[in-house]
Amino acid sequence: MRVKPDPDVKFCLVFQCETISVPVMRRVLGDTLRGLGVDEESVYDILLAATEACTNVLTHAGRHVRGYAVVTSLGAVGCQVEVADEGIGVAPAPQEPPAQEPEAQEPEAPVAQLPESGRGLAIMGAFVDHVTLDSRPGHGTVVTMRKHITWSSDAPLRQFRAAS
Ligand SMILES: Nc1ncnc2c1ncn2[C@@H]1O[C@H](COP(=O)(O)OP(=O)(O)O)[C@@H](O)[C@H]1O
Ligand SMILES: [Mg+2]
Question: pTM for this one?
Answer without folding.
Answer: 0.85
